[in-house]
């Protein structure tokens, strides 16, 4: 399995609610730089948080790649989601090449859990950071981080 984990681009500081925060112009530029790293990758699905900034990030990646399938929106990719639930959902999907678009602290905790097998070493992921992991299954401690790129 190859899993890419993308943190949304830079978002505006304030909105009526956190889920409504939108990408800034700089955030859109960041996402486009990260999306370029996915060109030619055999993605089967783009799965995103329902928050506006993650939806905008996923849409930019989708359009940049000319991805044929629609973005899948799930409630288990919000900032405070449970890492173990995310891993369980990935196992249930049974896909080989997946991009997740989400938020901190979830993305750092998820990448750390998949690589190290525990939550004590979250990976620092700035806005629009893209982590690439490989492994037989999306299980705690059984995936290897192949790359971590930051757009800035």
From TrEMBL:
The record's listing under SMART domains reads: PGAM
Q: What is a single Pfam family found in this protein's UniProt entry?
A: His_Phos_1
Q: Which InterPro entries does the record associate with it?
A: His_Pase_superF_clade-1, His_PPase_superfam, SixA
Could you identify this protein by its name?
Phosphohistidine phosphatase SixA
Q: Which organism is it from?
A: Pseudomonas promysalinigenes
């Amino acid at each position: 399995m190859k899993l890419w984990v993308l943190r949304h681009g830079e978002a505006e500081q304030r909105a009526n609610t956190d889920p409504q925060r939108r990408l800034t112009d700089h955030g859109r530029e960041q996402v486009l730089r990260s999306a370029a790293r996915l060109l030619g990758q055999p993605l089967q699905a783009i799965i995103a948080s329902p928050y506006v900034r993650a939806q905008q990030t996923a849409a930019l990646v989708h359009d940049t790649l000319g991805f044929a399938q629609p973005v899948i929106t799930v409630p288990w990719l919000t900032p405070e989601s449970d890492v173990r639930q995310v891993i369980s959902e990935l196992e249930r999907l049974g896909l080989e090449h997946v991009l997740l678009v989400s938020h901190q602290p979830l993305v750092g905790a998820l990448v750390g859990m998949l690589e190290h097998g525990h939550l004590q070493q979250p990976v620092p992921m700035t806005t629009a950071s893209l982590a690439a992991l490989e492994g037989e299954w999306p299980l705690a401690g059984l995936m290897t981080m192949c790359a971590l790129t930051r757009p800035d």
